[in-house]
Design goal:
The complex is a heterodimer of chains A (251) and B (348). Chain A is of the alpha/beta class and 251 residues long. Helix content of chain A is 31%, strand content 33%. In chain A, a hairpin with a 2-residue loop joins strand 11 (200-204) and strand 12. Helix content of chain B is 65%, strand content 14%. Chain B has nine helices and seven strands, in the order ααααααβαββαββαββ. Chain B is rod-shaped and about 115 Å long. Classes of the chains: A alpha/beta (251), B alpha+beta (348).
Chain lengths: 251, 348
Amino acid sequence: MNKIRTVIIDDETPAREILKHYLKDYPEIEIIAECADGFSGLKTISFMKPGLVFLDIQMPRLTGFEMIEVMTEKPVIIFTTAYDQFAIKAFEMNAVDYLLKPFPKERLGNALVKAIDKLGRTKESEIATPGELMEKLPKPSSPISRVVVRKGNAINLITVDQIKYIEAQDDYVMIYHNSGKALKQQSMKYYEENLPPKDFVRIHRTHIVKVSEINRIEPYGKDNHVAILKSGERLPVSRSGYKQLKDELNF
Amino acid sequence: MKHPVLENRVRLTVWGIIWLVIAAGQTISFYYAYGQFLNVSIIDAFVSIILYSGLALSLWFPFNYFSSGKKRIYSVVLNLAATGAITILIWILLSNLLLHQVLAGENDYQAYWDATLPYRIGSGIFIYSLTILSYFLFVSLNNLSEKKSREARLETLVKETELRMLRSQINPHFLFNSLNSISSLTVTNPDKAREMVIKLSDFMRYALARKDEQPVSLRSELENLRLYLDIEKVRFGDRLVIEEQIDPSCLEVKIPGMLLQPLYENAVKHGVYESTEQVKVCTTATVSDGMLSIVICNNFDPEAAPRKGTGTGIMNVSRRLELSYGNKATLTSEKKGNVFTVALYMPA
């Protein structure tokens, strides 16, 4: 039987040490890499294509959740986290297991049994894809402050204040920001709900715009409007979008 | 509600004196108006007025019953008027009975009684109104002072609760991650694991033990923060560097306990958690002109997009300063380049 190629991603050395120590007793696990932050973790995953990843959630530069958002590979993921009620809730419904730090060796054993079972039994297509996983991700408790996107092999963080507007494109959204645009597999609803509601308004089924980017609003057709941005773009405004804008801007 | 007169000796004495004055008043007026013998007027007045004073004392109970709670004003007035009529009737009948017994020897007493009866009724109504009025006054004043003291109690309660809320709570992330580090160290370095357990225990004791708002010395606050930073250092290793410049003269200055904790937690959270590079947390404390100055700064990774700068840590500290020192203390913070600085000034 092939060994399971495993990567450990955690920014705290002691946390990686104990996991490595526990895993010594599982000969079927082969640790091929350790990473101390999200960026190097992503790079390692796409480069080494591990079967199993132990992933911490709170890490510098890129969180474990954000990594999943832009991950194109499909390793089985076991989350390790110290304290995250939302995560616990989210992953109870998910095939992916989670370990609450500090965890006993037996608990790790259970998680490994699940992971090995999954890797051996199922075809790759049956493992939860990052997209499916993302659906189950816990909702942030406060508005998001940054969006992580992938452009080729590069990972970019776009802060919310750089975003100008967001356009729906089938299953994707196109995020227009100060230095270009980025495509991401996510729903408009996600952004409508999680961008700071004071700064962003969904003006149309297909568009969410940052209020401060709007230069003026002009009537268009019978009872539609069009918003003209400071940078010149013209975005459609639906009737309900116009109403929301009116509420937000008090005109 | 307790009886306003019977529960208090001073009030009972004053009450007695007032009735003696009323009795004297009745003696004099009846004697000059209808007078035959002074002794008849004196006995007549004192017997009937002492009788009335007893009745007036017991009037408190119907008064309290009719006027307390939420009742319509006209029903209160009506009830009190009826009570008044009954009281005066009882008074007249009882004094008639008693006085005829006491003054049985006096010849013309019946004539004296008959002549003074209308005035007795008049004074009865007058005294009844006075009694009710004084009870009413007592109740309103009492309510007012009770309301005031309740408000004062409520205010201190709110303040205490707020202070308790503001005192920083231990971040669960910190606690569980530290426990995980200890779990790991038991394998790789048992001595260090024991050391960390002791440090964590000391830190938790300091953070949890004090339920009150007793101020602590800057020395013990800083010692505790060193424990906190030492524990974080085990987790993050070289990523966290600690520097201190503490003027020895300010070590005994008293400050609210755990005041600085949220600021260090912020420095670690926004500095160390978010950076892959080394982060230095430095503290300077000086005292001059009766003011204590504490400056805490940390560098951070400017590349790292801000996660959630809710600012509750700094807001809490500044509110605590306000509650403890009024406007004599200030907190300022600034971000310059890749260094974040918080400065506190408070009376030493």
